[in-house]
From TrEMBL:
<dbReference type="GO" id="GO:0004523">
    <property type="term" value="F:RNA-DNA hybrid ribonuclease activity"/>
</dbReference>
<feature type="domain" description="RNase H type-1">
    <location>
        <begin position="40"/>
        <end position="159"/>
    </location>
</feature>
<dbReference type="Pfam" id="PF13456">
    <property type="entry name" value="RVT_3"/>
</dbReference>
<protein>
    <recommendedName>
        <fullName>RNase H type-1 domain-containing protein</fullName>
    </recommendedName>
</protein>
<dbReference type="InterPro" id="IPR002156">
    <property type="entry name" value="RNaseH_domain"/>
</dbReference>
<dbReference type="GO" id="GO:0003676">
    <property type="term" value="F:nucleic acid binding"/>
</dbReference>
<feature type="region of interest" description="Disordered">
    <location>
        <begin position="1"/>
        <end position="21"/>
    </location>
</feature>
<dbReference type="InterPro" id="IPR053151">
    <property type="entry name" value="RNase_H-like"/>
</dbReference>
<dbReference type="InterPro" id="IPR036397">
    <property type="entry name" value="RNaseH_sf"/>
</dbReference>
<feature type="compositionally biased region" description="Polar residues">
    <location>
        <begin position="7"/>
        <end position="21"/>
    </location>
</feature>
<dbReference type="InterPro" id="IPR012337">
    <property type="entry name" value="RNaseH-like_sf"/>
</dbReference>
<dbReference type="InterPro" id="IPR044730">
    <property type="entry name" value="RNase_H-like_dom_plant"/>
</dbReference>
Amino acid sequence: MTKERTLISQQGWQPSSPMTNTTRNVSFWKAPDRDVIKINTNGSFIVASKAGFGVIARDCTGKVITANYGSSRVQSTIQAEVVTILKGLELLPFLSASRFILEIDYTILIVAISSGKFSLAHDAQFLVQDIVNLTRNRNISFSFQNREGNGVAHMLAKERSIEFKFVIVCLSKVDPRPGKLRLI
């Protein structure tokens, strides 16, 4: 969260509210190992039946292999995230790699998928079971990536109404270097 800042002297800007000792862990997208494809997913839930998904797959150089986005009809945030993971898994038959990493920003889902405790995904239990069944006996792992490191998938989920042609042009110009996750 950004603190409001006020210019109180010629020497520079000072915080207008007391500083706390909490630090924010900034993270950036990191390229996977060779022969691994990383698929970043992000769901966007606004209100019931109004949600979006964004999926982007990149190789070890950060090159965008494919991307997908669209709207979905779900009833909760967790359902939006689960549907987005399923959309990411739909890409697997078209990708060739020895291993896949799916990065998501919903820790509870990672725990539910890896532990088999489907009750953690209260209103998406059956969908989580589908994910487990689809990934069983495949070299697929799930990892957490916060919004800062998942920026392109987040943008796709939020901007699901823009023209796909425009998205492809922008994605081809994504700078994959750490700290440079922005459209150029």
